Recover the amino acids of this structure.
C-alpha cells in the first residue's frame, strides 16, 4: 500500500519533494520553460503499475516547453488558474477542469494569475516517447493564428 498524506495548507504530499521539470532550459526553438516544478506521486518503483502519476506546478508567468509526443495527456487541474495551448486552441483552466491532449498535438501549459501556482495532475505511461519540438509547418501555423501566436516563443 502506498499512502501519501496531503497537507492542504502547504498544498503538499508527505514525503514527496519537487524535482526539476526537465534537465536544462531547452536550447531548441520552443523547448524553453520557466517556473515549472514536478512531483512524482506514484511510479512503477512505488506502486505495482505501468504508469507514473505526476503533479506539476507552474508559477504565475511560468510556462512549459512547447512540444509534442506520441503519448496522450489527460490532466486534471487542482490549483490556481492557467492556460493550455493545445493544437490551434487556447483553453482557460481552473480547479477541477480536465483536459485531453491527443497524441502528436503541440501543447504548452502556462501559469496565469498573480497569487498562487497553477497545479495539475498528469498521469503518463511508464514507457513513453520523449517530447519533440514542433516542425516548421506547425510552428508557422501557430505563429500565424491570432489565438495562439502570443504563446509561441
Amino acid at each position: 500500500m502506498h499512502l501519501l498524506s496531503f497537507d492542504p495548507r502547504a498544498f503538499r504530499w508527505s514525503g514527496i519533494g519537487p524535482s526539476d521539470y526537465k534537465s536544462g532550459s531547452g536550447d531548441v526553438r520552443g523547448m524553453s520553460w520557466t517556473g515549472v516544478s514536478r512531483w512524482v506521486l506514484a511510479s512503477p518503483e512505488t506502486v505495482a503499475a505501468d504508469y507514473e502519476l505526476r503533479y506539476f506546478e507552474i508559477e504565475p508567468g511560468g510556462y512549459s516547453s512547447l512540444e509534442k509526443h506520441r503519448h496522450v495527456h489527460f490532466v486534471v487541474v487542482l490549483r490556481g488558474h492557467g492556460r493550455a495551448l493545445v493544437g490551434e486552441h487556447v483553453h482557460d483552466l481552473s480547479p477541477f477542469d480536465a483536459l485531453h491532449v491527443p497524441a502528436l498535438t503541440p501543447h504548452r501549459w502556462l501559469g496565469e494569475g498573480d497569487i498562487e501556482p497553477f497545479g495539475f495532475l498528469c498521469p503518463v505511461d511508464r514507457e513513453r516517447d520523449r517530447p519533440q519540438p514542433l516542425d516548421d509547418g506547425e510552428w508557422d501555423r501557430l505563429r500565424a493564428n491570432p489565438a495562439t501566436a502570443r504563446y509561441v516563443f
The two ends are 43 Å apart (CA to CA). The chain has one domain: 26-148. The chain is about 5% helix and 40% strand.
